[in-house]
Amino acid sequence: MTEPLRVAIAGLGTVGAGVIRLLDTNGDLIARRAGRPIEVVAVTARDRSKDRGVDLSRFDWVDDPTALAAEADADVVLELVGGADGTALALARAALKAGKNFVTANKAMIAHHGLELAQAAEGAGVALKFEAAVAGGIPVVKGLREGAAANAIDRVYGVMNGTCNFILSKMESQGGDFADVLAEAQAKGFAEADPGFDIDGVDAAHKLSILSSIAFGTEPAFGDVAIGGIRNVVAADIAEAAALGYRIRLVGIAEADGEGLFQRVHPYLVPMAHPLAHVSGSTNAVVAEGNFVGRLFFEGAGAGDGPTASAVVADLIDIARGEFGPPYAMPVTVLAKQPPAPTGERRGRAYVRLTVADKVGVLAEIAAAMRDAGVSIEALMQRGALADGSVLVAIVTHEGPERCVAQALETLSASSNMTGPPMWMHILGE
């Protein structure tokens, strides 16, 4: 075996400590697979005295994280600090400028600054790796970038946020309301104290924009992702979906065609026959559809110290072997700059839930608004009165342009008979 691959780690939270434990536990196996040992030589974090359950005395400690690239005698800088900007971005820029390989689990930084960092890595002839930034331990980045490299990818989509999936799965099994299940998820550590990035779809959008670029050979375009979350999903939506033969999942979906790049994160009704309907708990799953390979399905733990550390060390093994190419599967100079695809003429079926006054003529008003907008109704269900006296009306539409549903909801939103905002969820095709 040759000289060890020397690694400097910035950030010693659950993932950073998990990486050290993994290298300690599987070090011999990893060395045989990598062709040489992988050794941590330097670390940095905010609190030097904190007990992290691993022995840090054997590593050099660097007080300033941004100085790690210059001060540590390392071949690779591993960033596990987090955050789109600030310390993480400064460290990434410094490491690549110093000609050091860079590995990160930071989805936000890659979504916002990945193109800049890829250009710097390619210019310096070093690796930029971020397998752990998307779907935890699932090797979906490698699967798309390498395993499916011979294919034109038609569509990539999936369940990409474990917090949302845990909440929706619990609402299915327990029949609880969103707020109660969110509180349970926070108590069990599946949701942050401030869960906005997760439940509002931002975390999934970061991951989707990364996968879109790799899948379609386009410049990352996080700002073009249409983002919706699950805050307004109620128990009645879960029950109605089940009665219709669906489950509700927060789905990120991307497609590229002649009109541009379509990227959306939003709650979808997923048919029971589709594998995504059976992804439960905090699990993540990603589907990619290639023109020769067909449908590929990746499923596994989307977060956690073990799965994320596994993905990080897989990147380190690639670097130890000298196996690394363009971060986005092709050089940044040939990545296409795609405009966002218009959605108005995008065709599909929809689920719409309205909260309305319990009055004679309200259903006729709803039907008229749908008719005038050109929306064909497949099914309409009215449920019993809520505590405030209003009722829920659920509608499933036939396939049609999205602009028609948007027009109908705009008309209805102005009605005094609407007692709450409408909920519009798309129905995923099989």
TrEMBL record:
Keywords annotated in UniProt: Amino-acid biosynthesis, Methionine biosynthesis, NADP, Oxidoreductase, Threonine biosynthesis
Class in the EC hierarchy, top level: oxidoreductase
Pathway(s) the chain acts in: Amino-acid biosynthesis; L-methionine biosynthesis via de novo pathway; L-homoserine from L-aspartate: step 3/3; Amino-acid biosynthesis; L-threonine biosynthesis; L-threonine from L-aspartate: step 3/5
Origin: domain of life: Bacteria
Entry's EC annotation: 1.1.1.3
NCBIfam families attached to this UniProt entry: PRK06349.1
Full protein name: Homoserine dehydrogenase
Organism whose genome encodes this protein: Stakelama saccharophila
